[in-house]
Amino acid sequence: MLEEISFESWYLYLIICGVLYFCTNYLYIQYLNKKLGAKSPGSCKSDGCFGFRSGFEMLKAKKIGRQVDLLHERFNDLSNPEVNDTFTSYNFGFPMIITKDPENIKALLATQFNDFSLGRRYDFFKPLLGKGIFTLDGEGWKHSRSMLRPQFAREQIAHVKALEPHFQLLKKHITKNKGQFFDIQELFFRFTVDSATEFLFGESVSSLKDESIGYNQDEFDFAGRKDFPEAFNKSQIYLSTRSLLQNLYWLVNPKDFQNCNAIVHKFSDYYVNKALNATPEELEKNSGYVFLYELVKQTRDPQVLRDQALNILLAGRDTTAGLLSFAVFELARNPQVWKKLREEIIERYADGATEISFETLKQCEYLKAVINETLRLYPSVPRNGRFANKNTTLPRGGGPDGMSPILIKQGQAVMYSIYSTQRDPKYYGKDADVFRPERWFEPETRKLGWAFLPFNGGPRICLGQQFALTEASYVLVRLAQCCENLQLTEGIEYPPAKLTHLTMCMFDGVPIKVD
């Protein structure tokens, strides 16, 4: 009988089904809007058929370092950009709410925390990160957080002296390159992976020890140690693409991705097994704090230990390296700021490291302003997202004035752009796009609330924020003590292209010359 139905009949049947689906969906949305007291949000320019055009535009922008800027520009395409901070968009066929409104972000992360979850983030990131604090929801996340919170107690992050040996290696590279341009971002990533692996595993990967400053890397290789940093970087590129594709994430699983994950896992498994095989006496007598040695007292599950360690390593390495890179980029562009920062540091510490401590770093007011301004313009995680657990609302974005609640259907994605919030003139004035640390001494800036959110907020606020701030502060102080002038190479565009994976850094590095 099916053979008797013509192609035209099938075509008509599909059209009728499509029309019925969209009509039913429209009526259901109107019903929910009325029930929940919500109004429809605005929309940006056409996303193309089922959002494939906007999806491919985002992938293209990602390749040239303009992904977050493209998203930022879409807010300006709204019918009333001065008022509307929230809009609907389609991405590869899937509807998404995009917002930069601090009240909506507050609802997502705090006041309506239980209405939202990470959705399919675990599926996106599982091949590399497994079941860690950044991929889990619900009870799994609560257990992870309770297990990890003690590892970031003040006494653990206050030991800045552990950073000095790594800085001395960084300084050797800087001294070697004095008088010529070199990429300091690449050195920052090596510095932070060295310090993070020492904190996490008890032994540094020693990536700063290479032939150029008199070390033979073969002396330091084990468990794929030399290959680990590059493999970790490449895996993150794949994870970022998987998250962009949303429900089509499974399309990205090439052999190269699998090989990189295997290298990363082999590296971390070496240290996990070492911790598991250590005797209680060895765990107790270790001279310094080791994250894995403390964690192994709470769980003997090697998968849990590996996954949590890699989740923390991702944050510990990439966020601080990105922060330092953007800070030096802006300080080189603004020599008057660098001069003022150096004056504060030299006055307090002279040229030595003995007086630098967790407590004294917190007293350097201009240093804190420089770091805050860097994090404002270049947040480590520029955009993030949640998925609705049920039919619910966000407080603003609906109606002509953008002040009415908006409907979020169960399963719908909501993306929030901290990058755009922290560049909004409504909160930072007409010079919101200008690097000006002095704004952090103004009364208005001290009342920003959810308009300044470099480390997320609510129950999932970053556990390691003080660790990152302390490490970045220490490195900037030591740089100021040994580098009088910073000079950027000519021709770098502004705003700079940004490499955005799970975190953000400079797309083309930071080529500078120091003296």
UniProtKB/TrEMBL annotation:
Any one Gene Ontology molecular-function term assigned to this protein's record: heme binding
Record flagged with keyword Iron: yes
One Gene Ontology term from the biological process aspect of the record: fatty acid omega-oxidation
Regions crossing the membrane: 12-29
Cofactor(s) listed in the protein's UniProt record: heme
PROSITE patterns xref list: CYTOCHROME_P450
Keyword terms of this UniProt record: Heme, Iron, Membrane, Metal-binding, Monooxygenase, Oxidoreductase, Transmembrane, Transmembrane helix
Family matches, as SUPFAM superfamilies: Cytochrome P450 (SSF48264)
Alphabetical list of CDD domains matching this protein: CYP52
InterPro entries documented for this protein: Cyt_P450 (IPR001128), Cyt_P450_CS (IPR017972), Cyt_P450_E_CYP52_ascomycetes (IPR002974), Cyt_P450_E_CYP52_fungi (IPR047146), Cyt_P450_E_grp-II (IPR002402), Cyt_P450_sf (IPR036396)
Keyword Oxidoreductase: yes
Residues bound to heme: C462
Family: Belongs to the cytochrome P450 family.
Protein name, entry field: Alk8p
